[in-house]
Amino acid sequence: MNFENNLAFAKAQDNSDSLRKFRAQFLFPKSKGKDFIYLCGNSLGLQPKVAQDVLKLQLDNWANYAVEGWFEGEEPWMFYHKELKKLMAPLVGASEAEVCPMNTLTVNLHLLMVSFYQPKEKRFKIIMEGGAFPSDQYAIESQVRFHGYDPKEAIIEVFPRAGESILRTEDILAQIKENGEEIALVLFGGINYYTGQWYDMKSITRAGHEIGAVVGFDLAHAAGNVPVKLHDWGVDFACWCSYKYQNSGPGGISGIFVHEKHFNTDLNRFAGWWGYQENKRFKMEKGFIPEAGADGWQVSCTQVMPMALYHASLQIFQSAGSIVPLRNKSITLTAYLEFIINQVNIELGIEQYKIITPQNSADRGAQLSIIAKEKGKEIFDGLVANHILGDWREPDVIRLSPIPLYNSFEDIYLTGKALLEVSKQVLEL
Ligand SMILES: *Cc1c(COP(=O)(O)O)cnc(C)c1O
């Protein structure tokens, strides 16, 4: 598409956007009575307006039914997670049985590694992306130690080549192959939080399986952002948080995926009563028998309040036609942001902004990570003062993520305009 850096063009794009109406379903942060342009949905998605109502409904259920709420009312809590499973499955390319909402992300990463990281003899290593989100690094390090290994020996990190900021798929695949007999687990992010790179999950999965390893993904920045096909790609397990691209609120519930090929196996797991065979759970018998499917990985009873929030936001995804139409808009919206950032460079007459996120839309989601060469933090603060909220990552990266459910082309145009003005001021150009 031929983009133009003017308001009329941006407005025309918005007018022909069939997803445009969804913006009105969200609450935008304000200061001095004016809404922010919100480009930080990669960190915390906006609040759907229905959030208060769905929480109120569950509070009413609690008030009216108390303990009977587990079995009474329109949506008994005992079975509430099933409603979410239906809506989660298409977002990650899974069957209903393969997904389940539970706990929070890092907790689930640990629980799944208990099942899927089974180091033995020579095969004890985990291969992962260098520069993974710190929580994942800590989780992996501590799992490795838990099994009695030294993280320095047991963890292989794949880094970009010197002078490059994103990973080449060929390098990831080569390192998986080279260390083939020693790798127990291939564990990557779907999209890297810092660079915005979407890894070639299908090829990574295939390469991992070819050397006899288990393959898992942390989809924190991918779920609800890009279409993934966990079942078809044969991914063994995955987990994600729902408060970033899926708008379920701070500390929102996490989702897990376990491929059906693992359902009838005797994988080790850290069990709890909620993962027990559902129809016999309340017999309170000795000896753990897991419920079939991903549900068998549950530990504690249903977290009704966070699930109600996730359910409400999943319904918005469903009414938008799930991930495919959103992704189509997202590709264009992010490409427009890229165009606008490059226009700012042109108008400044210097290469002040360098986008490290891959240029190819197949290698990225909504997010662009932009290195600000000079005075980045001052410029970022200037954007905030102009009602534009992205996020800042030390030492020099501004992350901006236009979200197809609630961002517009006009948002992007106005961001470019403000970025140009703020840059001129701060850089004294
Ligand atoms: C956001 C994020 C987390 C956060 O984990 P919580 O357990 O939800 O606090 C973990 N891993 C990755 C890759 C993330 O992007």
TrEMBL record:
This protein's pathway: Cofactor biosynthesis; NAD(+) biosynthesis; quinolinate from L-kynurenine: step 2/3; Amino-acid degradation; L-kynurenine degradation; L-alanine and anthranilate from L-kynurenine: step 1/1
Modified-residue entries (N6-(pyridoxal phosphate)lysine), positions: 244
Gene3D superfamilies, sorted: Aspartate Aminotransferase, domain 1, Type I PLP-dependent aspartate aminotransferase-like (Major domain)
Pfam families given in the database record: Aminotran_5 (PF00266), KYNU_C (PF22580)
GO CC, alphabetical: cytoplasm
Keyword hit for Hydrolase: yes
Cofactor: pyridoxal 5'-phosphate
InterPro entries named in the record: Aminotrans_V_dom (IPR000192), Kynureninase (IPR010111), PyrdxlP-dep_Trfase (IPR015424), PyrdxlP-dep_Trfase_major (IPR015421), PyrdxlP-dep_Trfase_small (IPR015422)
Record-listed E.C. numbers: 3.7.1.3
Annotated keywords: Hydrolase, Pyridine nucleotide biosynthesis, Pyridoxal phosphate
Domain Aminotransferase class V, chain residue ranges per copy: 74-261
Binding site for pyridoxal 5'-phosphate: 105-106, 133-136, 218, 221, 243, 273
Main enzyme class: hydrolase
One GO-annotated biological process of the protein: anthranilate metabolic process
GO molecular function: kynureninase activity; pyridoxal phosphate binding
Reaction catalysis annotation: L-kynurenine + H2O = anthranilate + L-alanine + H(+); 3-hydroxy-L-kynurenine + H2O = 3-hydroxyanthranilate + L-alanine + H(+)
Function: Catalyzes the cleavage of L-kynurenine (L-Kyn) and L-3-hydroxykynurenine (L-3OHKyn) into anthranilic acid (AA) and 3-hydroxyanthranilic acid (3-OHAA), respectively.
Record-stated family: Belongs to the kynureninase family.
Oligomer status and interactors: Homodimer.
Protein name: Kynureninase
Biological source species: Pedobacter paludis
Lineage summary: Bacteria, Pseudomonadati, Bacteroidota, Sphingobacteriia, Sphingobacteriales
